[in-house]
Amino acid sequence: MPKWKNVFVTGGAGYIGSHCIVELLEAGYDVIAVDNFANSVNDNGEAISLKKVEQITGKPVAFYQCDLLDKPKLEEVFSKHEIDCVIHFAAIKAVGESMQFPFMYYKNNLIGTINLLEVMQAHGCQQLVFSSSCTVYGNPEHLPITETHPTGNITNVYGRTKFFIEEMLKDVSAADKSWNIISLRYFNPVGAHPSGDIGEDPTKPFTNLMPYIAQVAIGNKPYLTIFGGDYETTDGTGIRDYIHVMDLASGHVAALKALQNEHLRLKVYNLGTGEGCSVLQLIKKFEEVTKTKVPYKIEDRRIGDIVSMYANANLAKEELGWQAKCTVEEMCKDFWRWKIKNPNGYKTDAVKQVANG
Ligand code: NAD
Ligand code: WQD
């Protein structure tokens, strides 16, 4: 049984949050989750993903519809529970949208985080795991990327919100030694829970590769556009470090345990596999594993795209005792299981009910 019991999870109805909650419940924690449904589906204020999580684990999740920008409401929810630690997933994350609406992104991600930190401090709860991103590294100066790689040379607003939050965390932990924080820099999360009952179902339009491949494979799009086939990589296409969302979830449990065991002040870890995979390699693997066809056309490079990005994840292995286990095959297989079980995402059941009268 964990020493800490109650974990407060922001953005819990979202993709990574919901998968992480499964791992937390299975590790024996109780979860209090909040979300404002900016990018997750709900049924009359209930988080559908979290209802599924309850079915998978057989354990309850205390859920509140709450916007981190609504500080009085956040304070009210926080006061109802004895919170031991917080995992902060809530953020908006669409790179293109962030360039169009910078105020919206800075307000949501930065003010939302400030509100959360202030409420935590007021309650004497200063243990935090923060969702950061490999995006803070900008265009890599060396590969694989270690945590000591410079940060901040970022070309988009979303990425800068993550960078500024990391800088703010440095300042708050320097000012008040009670803070005990781990910032996790995720590489490219993909896949779904092996049950196929929870997965990625954003309400905002997505642009990421794996969901796009699945849309083509299932027949909703005629082909995939590959953004650039003339990069200086093995096959000319972009390289990323894809990591199974369940591995990412276990990384959070490992981070919580590390915070429990030692007062770390502020530490940063990469969560990746350490392996690069090209766009063409991912498509091929997906086709093999799912026995589908993913037609594609190679077109122009996407503006601002990074050629190659993969992690050195040794620090998390050495200090958190965590390491990614799942293969690219498992990432494809699990994502596809979720997709074919839920072709319309979480709304499938509701749509079926309407169709059946
Ligand atoms: P997601 O959009 O599925 O989940 C985020 C959740 O936060 C959503 O359910 C959304 O409704 C909620 N939210 C947003 N603003 C909120 C607010 N003001 N108040 C309350 N809830 C709010 O995204 P995800 O992929 O699960 O990402 C989780 C975290 O991981 C984010 O911080 C994201 O920036 C970070 N991250 C994601 C990736 C990725 O590729 N998915 C990579 C690196 C880092
Ligand atoms: C992966 C590869 C594309 C779509 C995003 C965010 C970043 C971070 C990680 C949160 C690239 C290629 C893609 C398509 C393609 N997220 N591609 N056709 O670029 O690593 O970054 O996720 O913090 O902030 O920007 O991920 O999935 O968009 O692209 O050819 O239709 O697939 O060019 O090489 P990326 P991605």
UniProtKB/TrEMBL annotation:
NAD(P)-binding domain sequence ranges: 8-334
Look up keyword Membrane and say if it applies. no
Reactions catalysed according to its record: UDP-N-acetyl-alpha-D-glucosamine = UDP-N-acetyl-alpha-D-galactosamine; UDP-alpha-D-glucose = UDP-alpha-D-galactose
Into which family does the record put it? Belongs to the NAD(P)-dependent epimerase/dehydratase family.
Root EC class:
isomerase
Q: In which pathway does it act?
A: Carbohydrate metabolism; galactose metabolism
Name the source's superkingdom.
Answer: Eukaryota
- EC number(s) on file: 5.1.3.2
What protein is this chain from? UDP-glucose 4-epimerase
Keywords assigned: Carbohydrate metabolism, Galactose metabolism, Isomerase, NAD
Gene Ontology molecular function: UDP-glucose 4-epimerase activity; UDP-N-acetylglucosamine 4-epimerase activity
From what organism does this protein derive? Ranatra chinensis
Q: Which cofactor does it need?
A: NAD(+)
